Amino acid sequence: MKKKNFIFDLYGTLCDIHTNESKASLWKNMAGIYRSFGADYDGKSLRKNYLRLCEDETQKLEKKMGTNREIELRKVFLRLFEEKGITPKKDLVDYVAVTFRVLSRDVLYVYDGIFELLDEIHQKGGKIYLLSNAQNVFTIPELKELGLYERLDVIYISSDKKIKKPDPRFMEELLLEFHLNKEDSIMIGNDRTTDIAIANACGIDSLYIHSNNSYPNLKQASSREQEATYEVLDGDIKKVRKLLLG
Prior knowledge:
Layout: E1 5-8, E2 15-19, H1 24-36, H2 43-65, H3 73-82, H4 90-104, E3 105-110, H5 114-123, E4 127-132, H6 136-146, E5 154-157, H7 158-161, H8 168-177, E6 185-189, H9 192-202, E7 205-209, E8 230-232, H10 237-245
Parallel strand pairs: 1-4, 1-6, 4-5, 6-7, 7-8
Antiparallel strand pairs: 2-3
Helix pairs in contact: 1-2, 1-4, 2-3, 3-4, 5-10, 8-9
């Protein structure tokens, strides 16, 4: 395989993550933070209003731009202040959002062999692109924490573009902006319904990695849209490296 452009998914592909946004302690602690800045919530009311505002932002965006849209969660954290008569600075909104993410998270680490793989791609003249269904306010700090940020040439996050995989427009925008030849490009991801589906929709090769963060029922493709060009079904990054770089 001779490729120049390596388009990676993030969570479940380059790193493992697990979050739990339903635990009561998360909302109790977040309510305490909001109260400390003048916004009076308890845990239950904060969670209820957070979910309501997420749904409201989603409906507004989809009404304006159609389906497969990704909201910007900063707006939700901001509106939670505004509904209590508080006008916070952007730095405070980002602080609250990042705190929310850290408190909800109990697993975050880079898979073994990923750093070596990315470094070798660069050594051989390849470019590394990130195409992730994610929130900028969460993901950029996590990329820096993990040591991945400086290894990525281009970062495309769905909340920035207001569209997400598997909508082909998300990838087509990346391909167009950076003048990427489809024959020289490959999508690498751990989700057939998003990563592999968007690659097939855009007519580029794909590599499916079945990792510990993949849905068990997606180990095998159930439709042509989910069939990858290449597959590594045991999550072995050494096998990934051999397929991508020889």
